[in-house]
Structures are given as C-alpha cells and as structure tokens.
C-alpha cells in the first residue's frame, strides 16, 4: 500500500515518469510497477500511459488525493514525508499536495524530518538542476572532486537519493551500463546538457548492498582507549555497546574497512584517544603527527 501512495506522490511531483524509472526507485521489476498501476486504475486514480518517444506515465492534473481512503497514522506518515521533501525542494506542487492532505489541520506532526543540511545554500540549487535534467530527459555535466583531483563528468541522471546522512545522485556515465553514486557536496559547475539521456532499459539495476559491500569488510581491528569526555560522540556514532567503561576511560574495540577513514576519524579526537592496536595504525598516526609538527616548527 505504501508503494502505491509513493507512486502517486512521485507522479504528482514529477508530472511524468516511466515504468523503468519507478522500478529502479522502488527496486522492483517493471512488471510489478505495471501491476501497481493497474491497482491504481481500479481504485479510480487517473493514471495515464503515453506511448512512444518521450512518453511515460502521468496523472491527471485535476486529480485530488482521496484522503478518506487513508488512516490517521498513514496521513501523518505522508505529511512527514512531504515535509521532508519540502525542506530541500520548495515547489508549488509540494505545497498543493501538503495543503490537500493536511486539510488545514492544526495538529502538530508526530514525526518532523528535516533533510536540509549545513550546505543548504549550495545543495538546493544542485537538486533543482538535477531535477530539471531528469524531467527534461537531458544529460548532466559537472566537475566531481575525489581525493586530490577533480574530473569532468557527463552522465544520464536517474535519481536523487538520501543515504548515509548525505545526498547522492544515481546516474549512468557515458559508455557505461551501471548506475553509480555521486555525492552532491562533491559536485560543482552543474549544467543541463542539450543531449538526451540514456533510456535506462539496458542499465543494470543499482544494488546498494552489492556496491557498498566493502563497508562490511574487516580489515583493521581497532583497540583504543578514549577519555570519558568522548562518551557521547562514541554513543552517537557507534552505539552505547561499542565500548566498555574502565575507571574513567572507555575501551573501544571495532573493525574498520578503510584505513584512510580510520586515521581521519582518530585524528578528529586529538589528545582524547590512545591507540593500542593495530601497530600499523599507531605508527601511521605518529608519522602524521610528526609531519604536522614540522609544518609549524619554524613558526615559534
């Protein structure tokens, strides 16, 4: 049932989408989406399928969401989702949908989701340009910063997604057939191309679990002692079962996949942590700290 509601909201917001696009968004087959559309038609929702080049699935602009069909709890969840979208993407369509569903209720929502970030001034224009590129069925070009380099990219944008507390673009690079993830904060100089984007019919469906399975790799087993002042930070990032309290210290043991991330994370604690093992990480931290000392050696 939730997927049917979400399909309606996406069609109202985007105006027109293809069954292939909806299939990737919900990570189901195209056949499942077509069955969902049949269910909506049976329920009286005026969805229409336009065939041919530039076609897709639309919903009658005069359609009014049947509020009587949903429970109070479902209504609150819908309002929370729409408010969340509105926090990063202001539009007349969202305002209209929010107004119709809320029905001028003064009830304070139980769930309040704000997806905006500290980078809101730069994030929102990026989302608008990407949305324009998708709705106009055009490719998108941009500079992308990765490690110490920045590279130009031309992609067929597919979907904006919020994962791991950050915003990403799912897109297909030219001459490739796999959806990749691009972090919006690392994208710069975005331009909507005049060239049409790919059809996505031959695109291998994106699987976040497969593409990010390396995050579960156990490469470095950290054993470290933190000062008690860092307790809230460890609880916030890894939970209250990630350490044991010994006197006024915290013994932290955990596997990490990426060495660069681990080093950066440890350095963020400054003098509030002491690494016990692995020796490799301990020695690299010492080398980094020594190099930092050399930078400021002649300033005193």
From TrEMBL:
<dbReference type="Pfam" id="PF08279">
    <property type="entry name" value="HTH_11"/>
</dbReference>
<keyword id="KW-0804">Transcription</keyword>
<dbReference type="InterPro" id="IPR013196">
    <property type="entry name" value="HTH_11"/>
</dbReference>
<dbReference type="InterPro" id="IPR026881">
    <property type="entry name" value="WYL_dom"/>
</dbReference>
<dbReference type="Pfam" id="PF13280">
    <property type="entry name" value="WYL"/>
</dbReference>
<dbReference type="InterPro" id="IPR036390">
    <property type="entry name" value="WH_DNA-bd_sf"/>
</dbReference>
<protein>
    <submittedName>
        <fullName>Predicted DNA-binding transcriptional regulator YafY, contains an HTH and WYL domains</fullName>
    </submittedName>
</protein>
<dbReference type="GO" id="GO:0003677">
    <property type="term" value="F:DNA binding"/>
</dbReference>
<dbReference type="InterPro" id="IPR001034">
    <property type="entry name" value="DeoR_HTH"/>
</dbReference>
<dbReference type="InterPro" id="IPR051534">
    <property type="entry name" value="CBASS_pafABC_assoc_protein"/>
</dbReference>
<dbReference type="GO" id="GO:0003700">
    <property type="term" value="F:DNA-binding transcription factor activity"/>
</dbReference>
<keyword id="KW-0238">DNA-binding</keyword>
<feature type="domain" description="HTH deoR-type">
    <location>
        <begin position="1"/>
        <end position="58"/>
    </location>
</feature>
<dbReference type="InterPro" id="IPR028349">
    <property type="entry name" value="PafC-like"/>
</dbReference>
<dbReference type="InterPro" id="IPR036388">
    <property type="entry name" value="WH-like_DNA-bd_sf"/>
</dbReference>
<keyword id="KW-0805">Transcription regulation</keyword>
